[in-house]
Amino acid sequence: MKILLTGATGYIGKRLLPLLAEQGHDIICCVRDKNRFNFPEKYRTQITIIEVDFTIKETLKNIPTNIDAAYYLIHSMSVSATNYDELERISAENFIAQLNQTTVKQVIYLSGIVNDKNLSKHLASRKQVEEILNQANFATTTLRAGIIVGSGSASFEIIRDLVNKLPIMITPKWLNTKCQPIGISDVLLFLSKTLHNPQTYNKSFDIGGPDILTYKEMLLAFAKAKKLTRYIFTVPIMTPKLSSYWLYFVTSTSYKLAVSLVSSMKVEVVCKNNDINKIVNITPISYEEALAKALNKEQEDNVASSWKDSLISGRFNTNISQFIKVPKKDCFIDRRKKEIKDHNYTINKIWSIGGENGWYYADWLWGLRGFIDKLFGGVGARRGRTNKQNINAGDTLDFWRVLYANKDEGKLILYAEMKLPGEAWLEFKIINNYLYQSATFKPKGFLGKLYWYSVLPFHGFIFNGMLNKLIG
């Protein structure tokens, strides 16, 4: 079967792709930027990559007409705190206009549970997309999920960050809101088993685990799984804005995502129509089991995808391809080089940089810079990295974005997503047994130049100390 997969670089799409490939399907992956799309080489003959931006109608002409089914996994919640619903409407309308010209028989859409009378802006937008898709010529199957629990999911990482960092929590009253979490493994099963299943055509189903819990109970269950003692007190005085800042500063989430999440967390997301369980013969695992799976994946450094690797989790609103070539004109550049003693040691140190491993020298200054960035509304340093050893183009690495990563070539290029009066790159490359390390800054106006000279005194020992650690 030929399947169109939208959101192929997203949290769900990255995990669904190998599952579909293992089932023998041919997959057309829709991505905004081919340079940040990584997939297992063993599936190369089954995968076709096309560049599509669903908000730009002209790009949808790249979609082939001879497709059998499609997955609609487009979300715009983190792009903007104000107009993401409009972007989602445009994307959905462009999608059906193009797919109506194809041979597609079924589209499977992953939405949110929308049973409450008073929906948040995010959930109302999800419902609006569902209504748009239902107007198309093809059959639509909508799977509505609440909190998705899995390594790398936004929900899981917010719960993890809150429990790990706060022994005592003074929390907003929406922590008493009920929800029905579902494990990522079950979400993937539902997505794959509804494919080409006539019993699911033109229908909507709620999918959830067996447990109905409050957010407070979910936090305490996580603490129990980690064998931590935590105390949670809810208060009625925290406004939505204060709640958003609370999530933003304590967890790795972006402020725009925090605003959307807080709005949605006041709405009950509990399943009503879950007939899908019998139709596809799935018994979802418990919240406790889903937590255990996620924690094991993290411990094994086997996180398949992370919400943070989406470009919209940082400063990017365009393709990374435009930034791979590090500029020189009108730039300040800190260049350093040293002869390496052991090539394997150095390359492995470079590929392990950031996250829990730190930056090898003056980590407290890197942490301070991340904290300052958070104060000014930036991404901060809490995003860490998806895997401890592997790096791919498009990944997040603390407050950097990976632009280029080629271990065989010995070259890594990072782009700064922190708040800056300009643009910054950090580059490592090994040539003829020498490690070249370059920090490039392209200032914007007088403030940019002032910023460069203010941090210049620190470069001498920070970058030199890091270089020394990298060569052993």
Description:
The protein is of the alpha/beta class and 472 residues long. The radius of gyration is 23 Å and the shape is globular. α2 (84-99) runs parallel beside α3, α4 (154-165) crosses α6 and α6 (215-225) packs across α10. The protein has helices at 11-22, 84-99, 121-133, 154-165, 184-193, 215-225, 240-250, 255-264, 276-279, 287-299, 343-350, 363-375, 445-471; strands at residues 2-5, 26-31, 47-51, 69-72, 106-112, 139-145, 148-149, 168-172, 178-179, 182-183, 203-207, 213-214, 231-235, 332-339, 396-397, 400-406, 411-416, 422-431, 434-443.
Strand content: 15-25%
Q: Give the overall form.
A: globular
The residue-averaged pLDDT reads 88
What's the arrangement of strands in the largest beta sheet? 3-2-1-4-5-6-11
Helix fraction by DSSP (H/I, runs of at least 4) = 25-40%
Kindly report how far apart the N and C termini lie. 52 Å
Structural class from helices and strands? alpha/beta
Quaternary structure of the protein: single chain
- Radius of gyration, whole Å: 23 Å
- What is the number of helices? 13
User: What's the total count of β strands?
Assistant: 19
Q: Largest sheet at a glance? A: 7 strands, parallel
Low-confidence stretches: none
What is the element layout, followed by pairings?
Elements: E1 2-5, H1 11-22, E2 26-31, E3 47-51, E4 69-72, H2 84-99, E5 106-112, H3 121-133, E6 139-145, E7 148-149, H4 154-165, E8 168-172, E9 178-179, E10 182-183, H5 184-193, E11 203-207, E12 213-214, H6 215-225, E13 231-235, H7 240-250, H8 255-264, H9 276-279, H10 287-299, E14 332-339, H11 343-350, H12 363-375, E15 396-397, E16 400-406, E17 411-416, E18 422-431, E19 434-443, H13 445-471
